[in-house]
Structures are given as structure tokens and as C-alpha cells.
Fold this protein.
Amino acid sequence: MPGLVAPIGRVERISRTLAPRGQAELRGARVGLVDSGKRNADRFVQALGELLRERFGVGEVLIRRKPNPTLPAPREMLRELSEACTFVVHAVGD
């Protein structure tokens, strides 16, 4: 005999904290850009790097390409960028 199922799901509230923010200056900063590996992402990060240099005086831009666009960036890549750069941008979508 079929039974009734309540369509009400349970939602758990997860509390998260943001990473500490620094007071970094863009001028002269070393910036890491992660190319997601998706189509035209390489062109986007190149253009972003040039814009950051021209408009904000960023010193150096390190670009790394993820080996697989559907998987997270390798930990070693993120460690390298986080140790070498003032900040890292890893948020390129379609």
C-alpha cells in the first residue's frame, strides 16, 4: 500500500567564516590568475592581467592553467600561487 511522504526537506545552516583579509596594495603586487581551462579562459586571464598592470600598476602576473576544467585546481598549483602572490583570482566561468 503506498504511503504519503511529506515534501518538506531539511535544511541545515552551516556557519562559515571568511579568510582574513589583508590590506594589500595593488601597485607592485604579484598577482596569480588561474585559467580554468575552458574555452577562451586563456584569453580572459591574459586580458585581465594586462588590465591589472595598466590600470592598477600590478607588478607581476603569474598565470597557471588547470589541467582539467571540470576538476578543482591541483593543491600544489594553489599552494605555489598562494605562497608567491599577493592575491589570486580563480573564478572564471563560462
